[in-house]
């Protein structure tokens, strides 16, 4: 960035000289221009992206934790726009990572993140205000991790829990323990039927749908919400099957 004016000057001189020198050999002007831009891009962009935390004066965090200490450090940064970009990137990456396992949670968190950023760009929120909103989302992530741990559930079991607990009537009618038990049973049934090619075989999908609907009825799930819950659970099941297939392939 310190020599950007000089670079612009030399590029302008080169463009002018090229008009008088059309007999040269070797690479074309387009190839030379492309090479120059690649060198400049590498010098000006790559380093800054790699060192974004250092440039912002922020210690590199463990993004799976999003600790109170780190969030407070970000909030107190003088340059709110820089701190905001750092936190936005962290949250975006964290939510995308969770999207491979937990459909409902990742969808909810991503909607919250996009809504906050949209209001910031529309100047409804200041940088400081949107920082507070993003910090709330970060705390929501930490809270859900703690809840899964406290309930003694694996990531996938908890994903099915969020799928069946994603409506008010179910939470009102069924206590947390009942929903927890239902989620674990659903996970086990789906896991047992999630063959490698189930996502493309309609017969397997149909069988799984029957199993899910029957299980929801057995546990006394609210009848008016069963259709929606079945669809959500099946989408979650598809994610589980994809992930199990991927892991089998990696192994």
Can you lay out the helices and strands and say which pair or pack?
Elements: H1 4-18, H2 29-50, H3 52-55, H4 68-75, H5 80-98, H6 103-121, H7 127-150, H8 155-164, H9 168-173, H10 176-193, H11 202-218, H12 226-250
What is shown here, in short?
The protein has 251 residues and is mostly helical. It has helices spanning 4-18, 29-50, 52-55, 68-75, 80-98, 103-121, 127-150, 155-164, 168-173, 176-193, 202-218, 226-250. It starts with a helix and ends with a helix.
Detailed description of the structure:
By secondary structure, the chain is an all-alpha fold. The chain has 2 domains: 32-150, no CATH class; 155-244. It is built from 12 helices and no strands. It is elongated. Mean pLDDT is 78; it is low at 43-53 and 61-65.
What's the helix count? 12
Question: Structural class, please?
Answer: mainly alpha
Order of helices and strands: HHHHHHHHHHHH
Biggest sheet, in brief? none
Helix content: over 70%
- Counting DSSP E segments of at least 2 residues, the number of strands comes to 0
Q: Can you tell me the residue ranges where pLDDT is under 50 for at least 5 consecutive residues?
A: 43-53, 61-65
Bulk shape: elongated
What proportion of the residues form beta strands (DSSP E)? under 5%
C-alpha-based Rg, rounded: 26 Å
Please report the distance between the alpha carbons of the first and last residues.
Answer: 46 Å
Mean pLDDT: 78
Number of domains: 2
């Amino acid at each position: 960035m310190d020599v950007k004016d000089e670079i612009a000057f030399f590029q302008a001189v080169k463009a002018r000289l090229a008009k008088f020198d059309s007999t040269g050999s070797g690479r074309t002007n387009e190839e030379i221009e492309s090479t120059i831009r690649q060198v400049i891009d590498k010098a000006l962009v790559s380093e800054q992206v790699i060192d974004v935390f250092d440039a912002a004066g922020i210690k590199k965090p463990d993004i799976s934790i999003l600790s109170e200490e780190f969030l407070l450090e970000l909030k107190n940064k003088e340059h709110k726009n820089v701190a905001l970009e750092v936190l936005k990137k962290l949250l975006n990456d964290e939510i995308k990572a969770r999207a491979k396992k937990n459909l409902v949670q990742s969808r909810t968190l991503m909607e919250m993140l996009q809504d906050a950023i949209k209001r910031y760009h529309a100047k409804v929120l200041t940088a400081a205000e949107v920082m507070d909103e993003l910090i709330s989302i970060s705390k929501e992530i930490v809270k859900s991790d703690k809840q899964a741990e406290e309930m003694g559930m694996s990531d996938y079991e908890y994903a099915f829990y969020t799928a069946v607990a994603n409506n008010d009537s179910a939470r009102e009618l069924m206590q947390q323990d009942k929903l927890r038990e239902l989620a674990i049973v659903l996970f086990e049934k789906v896991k047992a039927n999630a063959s490698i090619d189930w996502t493309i075989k309609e017969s397997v999908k149909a069988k799984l749908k029957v199993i899910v609907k029957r299980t929801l009825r057995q546990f006394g799930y609210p009848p008016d919400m069963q259709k929606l819950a079945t669809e959500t659970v099946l989408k979650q099941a598809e994610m589980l099957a994809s992930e199990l297939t991927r892991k089998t392939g990696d192994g």
